[in-house]
Known about the structure:
Strand content: 5-15%
Number of helices: 5
Structural class: mainly alpha
Radius of gyration: 22 Å
Helix content: 40-55%
Largest sheet: 2 strands, antiparallel
Strand order of the largest sheet: 1-2
Amino acid sequence: MRKAIEKCPACGGELLITRMSCTSCETVIQGRYASCKFCKLSPESLRFLEIFVKNRGNVKEMERELGIPYSTVRGQLNDLIQELGFEVEPVEEDGVTARRREILDRLDRGEIKASEAAEMLAQLKQ
């Protein structure tokens, strides 16, 4: 089944659902119904949300399933939160945490070897 169109193709205005019908008995209901927040999500955001729920919000598991680094998962999660109409509070990281994340992202992208990453991380602890 196709997803309902959310915006008017002529002017871009919001569309309302005004008619629903039963596929079994042909009962028809007419009125003005707004779609839910989740109905307005893009297909990509819906897929991300499904994976998020399936993994019980475990970002590390999402990393593995999606094959993308932690920072990308967090970024997509922030995008989803904003798409649902909520504010995203910026997370401030200290210098060590930011550097650790940078090293791990470089490792994920294949820019450095695991041994190099381990050495760099060990130096951060000193």
